[in-house]
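Message: Study each token:
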Amino acid sequence: MKEPGPDDSAPSSPSLTTGKFRKRYLWVMGLALYVGVVWYIGWQGIHEAIAGLELRYLLLLMVFEAGAIGLRILKWRIALGRDRNIASLFLLSKAAGGWSPSRLGELSPLLIRQYRTPRIAAWLVLDRLLEIAATLGLGVVGVVSLVGLPVQRRYAMAATALVAMVVLFVGPLYLLTRRRLFLDLARRFAEPSLAHRAGGMMAAVGEEILGFRKLAPAISVLTVLATAADVAKAVMLYRSLGYWVPFALLATVQCAHGIVSAIPFTPNATGVPYFVAAGIVHQLGGVPVEVVTVAVGVFFVSLNLVFWTLVGLTGALRLRSQVEEPMVHAEGDRERREER
């Protein structure tokens, strides 16, 4: 599976097939880690866990994944308007972001000339911050709600998530909206210089972020709903393997996964965030090691199946509109000639 990247030579049609963010070494590391764990556990336990897989819950997992993607595309449409490429831009951003260090690949739409604007940059940054806040917020609620965990440990984990929220959400949002600060920095440098242009660009991005204030309630609600759907996917995952893992625990797990995946040298492609999450489920949820190992593989395959199916459908619809549009114009021209 190749990681997507935009084709700057075709700005009107974002591509999901080129490889600006290919990190083959990360794929190798993730695959080696998974194979190593499977080898250590032994095939017998893995086979038994797979044999008990219930497909109805797996299908529900895929439904929740499609729903989460749909909610996020709707959020992008509300924020950016009815551009016909919004769905493609979203899929491009998420595909590149999930497998790049610190999720920097989510900025990949800026590589497309027509979308290289302060408004698009502001939205990409704001959307990432909202996703971080929703994940950490649900994690705090989840860890405080955990039953059977010592109070001191619960509050220590909640405090860690709150500190992460300040560092990853509140701090960056406050800094990015200090427009005057960036303008003052830009004035310190000569006008043609890179530093002057960067300061001006950051000021423009900050102003655009403030411009989303009126949409804040709608996009915040959609972000929380999509994040809750992400947790529900994990609930269905373990239910398909015969285990009932509480929503609160999996919200905590997703919070931990998000923090680890944000570290530059442990993005999703390395497999480390998935195994950190699986380790928490094993320790706090009492799920056997072989089951959580199978869960990692099933989760990865299921989510990619849904995601890349939607990518294919979006590409097919885009191609169809490109083919039909000239035909509609030609038909309109023919009718006008006949009327004359």
